[in-house]
Amino acid sequence: MASITLNNIVKKYDDGFPAVNNVSLDIADGEFVILVGPSGCGKSTLLRMIVGLEDITSGELQIDGTRMNEAAPKDRNLAMVFQNYALYPHLTVYENIAFPLRLAKSKSGDSTGGANGGSNGGSRGRSLGGAGGGSVDDRVRKAAEMLELTEHLERKPANLSGGQRQRVAMGRAIVRQADAFLFDEPLSNLDAKLRGQMRSEIAQLQRRLGVTSVYVTHDQTEAMTLGDRVAVLKKGELQQVASPRELYEQP
Ligand code: ADP
Ligand code: ADP
Q1: For the whole model, what pTM was predicted?
Q2: Could you point out which of 109, 176, 197, 242 has its C-alpha 20 to 30 Å from the C-alpha of 222?
Q3: Contact 198, 152 (CB under 8 A)
């Protein structure tokens, strides 16, 4: 787990207009922050800057107090969960979940999976206690068990339901023992029933793993049930940060 600190973060794309403007936010170790705001307000841009898929124009990103603006994505040890799953269609559920571990292993030769990444040592890559420790196989099976995917391990994504695919995507994030999860509207493609089910599963996982999360959603129920705090972004600027209760129950 890790804290994430944003200090006056600005993102300007080529048109020079700030897509994210002067955003400052302290996300505590283990905290679940919901990010809401109208389409185009900069939510995805902010997540992508945190995870390292997009350069930060100015300002500073810190993970556990260390500046990470220049760190490669793999050295940030954050896991992103997208709405479109991003699973490999030709791989089984097992192989999809194991993929980040195998990738890290083949790069580093680290027999524990090497998912700790991080060139800055220190507290990076601590075990989450959930699917932590053990061999690749142990970790994949433990994550699959948590997500009720054990009986589907040999299936391909095409043969899974939307909810199951979403769980595979989360399994992949869990086995990496990431320091934080970044969710970009992970449930928005699911029907209402599945969304409700997945919402409780994420809430349970969060309780069990206590992992720092930033979660983009348009869904007020998700914000109410999952969030410790809700950050409201508008035209690239942070308008308000409040508890779900304060935000949604105000007159
Ligand atoms: P969202 O669901 O976050 O609203 P969008 O549909 O706005 O996503 O964007 C989808 C993808 O298109 C993103 O990867 C984003 O970077 C890219 N994108 C969005 N707006 C622009 C733009 N004006 N120019 C180039 N790429 C864009
Ligand atoms: P959200 O996720 O809240 O829908 P985005 O972060 O996708 O918002 O977009 C914020 C702003 O940045 C929008 O005006 C969008 O058009 C612009 N934008 C996003 N991605 C790109 C990109 N790759 N190139 C240029 N402009 C972009």
Answers
A1: 0.78
A2: 176
A3: no
